[in-house]
């Protein structure tokens, strides 16, 4: 019976087609993986319009006591938010800082240990530092 499978040209042709299809699928999957990873193996998450970060900045800037805000989001392989860094004017105030942390926790359903908030320098502080360095 095994000889029948070896010698039947129709079965050989189907087998070759299946193998060719599997090779094509493997090449497609491998090329997709290569294009979605950085050289160090980390997947690159691109929010092309910056929508999530821009929305978060807008919401956080509306909190009482908060001035200019910047955020950075860290994602896992499944695009889930795993960490957030916030720099905001006014974050030196413990109440404002706590409000920022609570807002981020609520939006992304993450723990407070995944959120870091830092006081953002005022624009005039940059100029003073530059003058002191010279």
Automatic annotation (TrEMBL):
Q: Where are the transmembrane segments?
A: 15-35
Does the keyword Transmembrane helix feature in the UniProt annotation? yes
Question: What are the UniProt keywords, alphabetically?
Answer: Membrane, Transmembrane, Transmembrane helix
Protein name stated in the entry: Stage III sporulation protein AG
Instruction: Name the species this protein comes from.
Output: Lentihominibacter hominis
């Amino acid at each position: 019976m095994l000889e029948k499978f070896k010698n039947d040209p129709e079965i050989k042709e189907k087998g070759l087609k299946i193998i060719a299809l599997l090779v094509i699928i493997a090449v497609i999957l491998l090329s997709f993986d290569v294009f979605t990873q950085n050289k160090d193996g980390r997947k690159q998450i691109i929010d092309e319009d910056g929508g999530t970060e821009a929305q978060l900045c807008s919401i956080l800037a509306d909190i009482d006591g908060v001035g200019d805000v910047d955020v950075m989001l860290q994602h896992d392989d499944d695009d889930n938010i795993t960490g957030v860094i916030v720099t905001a004017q006014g974050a030196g105030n413990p109440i404002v800082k706590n409000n920022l942390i609570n807002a981020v926790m609520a939006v992304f359903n993450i723990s407070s240990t995944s959120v870091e908030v830092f006081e953002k320098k005022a624009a005039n502080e940059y100029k003073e530092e530059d003058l002191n360095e010279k």
